[in-house]
Amino acid sequence: MFTNSRKSAVFAALFVLSVFCAFPSAAQFRSEAFTQQYNSQESMAAAKKKNKKDTTDVLFSFKEYFGGLRHENTLKIGTSFAGSMVFVGGQQIYNGQNWKLPIVYGGIGAGLAGGIYFNSTGRNDVAKYFFIGAGVFYWGSLMDGVLNYKPSDFPHPGKATVLSIILPGLGQIYNNEWWKLPIYLGGMGFAIHLYSDFSANFDRYQRIYDEAIADPLSYSGPITAEQARYYRNTYRRWRDYSLFAVLGIYLLQIIDANVFAYMHNFDTDTNLSFNIEPTVISMDRPSGFSPAVPDAVGLKFGFSF
């Protein structure tokens, strides 16, 4: 037997389900999405003949990467990007833009040389700007290589993913989904603001706690050591939560860019649909043979082909 509370919960769940599903949904995907072979029999046979591993068995192949730089084979954008993170300028070589190499190496080298020089002379405030400049040239070389990579289709999921890794929101711009930028960038900005605020309060109460337990006592404010420790731990916990929020939103926008780039070319039409909607069920009541049965409320399921 169901209690009244359980009955109410069941009816509430059915009502929410009926409202959520009242709108017809339709989806039909290309048959190629389910029959596509990413490694054909011919390519697998050729790979076995040359005693090579299948491309899904290794995450990165130096032979494949340097072969791509020599234009002996085609590089995936992930391989090109990962290799250029170590071998700077590799993307420019693969894209056939060797003239950019002096700019890349010159900018990074000048930044590092200036930073090391001023750091050795004790001018750390100047040295940090040279190191930042070297980092900007390094980041710019990666961005340039990805932007100039020419995939065979648009939008290319790999390119959308790498763009989101380099700069949050850039993958959504590449997918022509500008309306998502306020969501992701606004969320990350708010989480970063919270992290900064909680971190400042954590440092404040950490300083008060250290001064309150010092011997001799160097703090004369109204906050006790126990109170300072409580607030310190509270703000540290919320600071960590806000950092996890920043990382979570960052990962979410990468996944979003990848998934919607894949789904961009899927066909959708109304040839196949599945509908769920609330309805009133009326019982057949032959006159004179059965007592009156009241109408009932239920759900109607429908398929359209």
Looking across the biggest beta sheet, what order are the strands in? 1-2-3
Contiguous helical run count: 12
Shape: flat
How much beta, percentage-wise? 5-15%
The run of helices and strands is HEHHHHHHHHHHHEE
Proportion in helices: 55-70%
What would your notes on this structure say?
This protein is mostly helical and 305 residues long. It has a domain at 54-150. It has twelve helices and three strands; from the N terminus they run αβαααααααααααββ. α8 (124-147) runs antiparallel to α9, α9 (157-166) packs antiparallel against α12 (225-263) and α11 runs antiparallel to α12 (225-263). It is flat, with a radius of gyration of 31 Å.
SSE blueprint:
Elements: H1 4-21, E1 25-26, H2 32-35, H3 41-49, H4 62-69, H5 77-86, H6 90-94, H7 101-120, H8 124-147, H9 157-166, H10 170-174, H11 181-212, H12 225-263, E2 273-281, E3 296-304
Antiparallel strand pairs: 1-2, 2-3
Write out key terms for the chains shown.
305 residues; mainly alpha; three-stranded antiparallel β-sheet; 3 strands
Q: Would you kindly provide a brief summary of this structure?
A:
The protein has 305 residues and is mainly α. It contains 12 helices and 3 strands; from the N terminus they run αβαααααααααααββ.
